[in-house]
Amino acid sequence: MAQYRDQEFIEKVGKKIVSIRNRKRITQEELMDRTGLTLSQVGRIERAEVNTSISMIALIAKGLQVKPKELFDV
2, 32, 41, 70: least buried by Cβ within 10 Å? Predict the structure, then answer.
């Protein structure tokens, strides 16, 4: 199977992460500290520059104190 990439969905998930982070008044730096990701990783995920893994989504959800499914509710 050819590599599959749904850019529109990736962008929606990135925007959802930003929305939740802003709603909770968490900076990218705070999310970085909570997850162990680098600041550039957080930014690339939020800007949909990378097709991140399910494991990273789970880690971000934990850092935002939400269930992973909330990040997919787009």
Answer: 2
Which is nearest to 66 in space by CA: 34, 39, 28, 33?
34
C-beta neighbour count of 29 within 10 angstroms: 10
pLDDT digits (tens, 9 = 90+) for 38-58: 999 999 999 999 999 999 999
Quick check: is 40 in a domain?
yes
Residue 74 domain flag? no
Asked if residue 57 lies in contact with residue 71, where contact means CB atoms within 8 angstroms, the answer is: yes
Per-residue pLDDT tens for 7-30?
999 999 999 999 999 999 999 999
**CA-CA distance, 2 to 41, in Å (whole number)?**
25
Asked whether residue 17 is domain-assigned, the answer is yes
Using an 8 Å Cβ cutoff, are 69 and 63 in contact? no
The count of structural domains within the chain is 1
